[in-house]
Amino acid sequence: MSGAFPPLREELRGIEPYGAPQLDVPVQLNVNENPYGPSPEAAADIARAVGEAAVSLNRYPDREFVALRAALATYLNSSGGSAIVPEMVWAANGSNEVMLQLLQAFGGPGRVALSFAPTYSMYPEYARDTLTEWVAGHRAEDFSLDLDAAGDLVLEKQPSVVLLPSPNNPTGTALPPEAVSMLCEAAASYEPGGVVVVDEAYGEFRRAGTPSALELLAVHRNLVVTRTMSKAFALAGARVGYLAADPAICDAIRVVRLPYHLSAVTQATALAALRHAPELLGRVDDLRVERDATVVWLREQGFEVADSDANFVLFGRFADRHAVWRGLVDRGVLIRETGPDGWLRVSIGTAGEMAAFRQALLETVRQTTDQTSTRDTA
Ligand SMILES: *Cc1c(COP(=O)(O)O)cnc(C)c1O
């Protein structure tokens, strides 16, 4: 046999699968999970719901997941939205799948997907996998969007999908509603126009006074707001993400989704979890306080820190960030080596986990500096 096996698409050869290292260390602050698991009562309720679903697992699940769409609409109307009806809601196995479906429906050969770097590292993968051209504009030095430049880039590239994480991952930066509105208008000004996806995976963590893009759904037909149960909702293991948008957009996604993509077990789990929403979201305020304290502490130590509306903080800058990341791992604390060169990202954990992080960081930086000065004097 000649040539490479297996016969992988040319552009996929040699590519590493996406994913942060899953290392077994005591303090896991690398993938922005909620550190607080469900209470025994909530866990028992989820187990009961899954048990009830189990007796009819010989049947396919509700393909349109009607009950779940209604429950998600109710939740969204309590979380920054209003007048969101079930026909405006779509869900899938994580918001990653929701966004891939958006690219399958609205991207494709000859079309462009656009975002502004630094941005979520999965977006270019959705574009690659759907043969959509990927264009990345740039954020300003403080990670905000230069609105004029952003609008001009949209008009120039005429993307069919614009991806805007807000709060942004990895920087934590939220977008003001004017920015979202301006980009929605720009993306509606050419033929056939583009959809503007505001990825609010961290929406529930936004600071007081930061509005959700859900408020703009009534104004812009081409706006899509995605959310997830993986972060604030403390349900990353269940794989449930969703969006709110014009019903015509939800209908379009139905064309590309796989049949019965949301299992009966997933639907039962999500519905039961939504009945416990106040409890599962109950630690969000604590995490926001811990986040703000982490930003203040890091600045006191002399680090550069990006303002954050999310449950993580991007800080730097390090001449050798990998050495710092490694030093923390050696002390049992796993954070994320991501973002622009020289920066690191730490997810907000419990108070105890954050104390471990602070100590490990101080020790690591001291050690790295000692080594540098030893080398300097040698
Ligand atoms: C974590 C994250 C998601 C959510 O992913 P799920 O597939 O829902 O777990 C989406 N967007 C961004 C920017 C994220 O960081």
From TrEMBL:
Keyword presence, Amino-acid biosynthesis: yes
Keyword match Transferase: yes
TM annotation in the entry: none
Modified residues (N6-(pyridoxal phosphate)lysine): K231
Gene Ontology terms, MF aspect: histidinol-phosphate transaminase activity
Required cofactor(s): pyridoxal 5'-phosphate
Gene3D superfamilies reported in the protein's UniProt record: Aspartate Aminotransferase, domain 1 (3.90.1150.10), Type I PLP-dependent aspartate aminotransferase-like (Major domain) (3.40.640.10)
An annotated GO cellular component: ribosome
Catalyzed chemical reaction(s): L-histidinol phosphate + 2-oxoglutarate = 3-(imidazol-4-yl)-2-oxopropyl phosphate + L-glutamate
The organism's place on the tree of life at top rank: Bacteria
CDD domains (UniProt xref): AAT_like (cd00609)
Keyword list, A-Z: Amino-acid biosynthesis, Aminotransferase, Histidine biosynthesis, Pyridoxal phosphate, Ribonucleoprotein, Ribosomal protein, Transferase
One Pfam family hit: Aminotran_1_2
Metabolic or biological pathway, per its Swiss-Prot or TrEMBL entry: Amino-acid biosynthesis; L-histidine biosynthesis; L-histidine from 5-phospho-alpha-D-ribose 1-diphosphate: step 7/9
Residues annotated as domain Aminotransferase class I/classII large: 27-360
EC number: 2.6.1.9
Family the UniProt entry places it in: Belongs to the class-II pyridoxal-phosphate-dependent aminotransferase family. Histidinol-phosphate aminotransferase subfamily.
Self-association state and partner proteins as the record states: Homodimer.
NCBIfam families according to UniProt: hisC (TIGR01141), PRK03317.1 (NF002877)
Protein known as: Histidinol-phosphate aminotransferase
Source species: Nocardioides hwasunensis
Gene, per the UniProt record: hisC
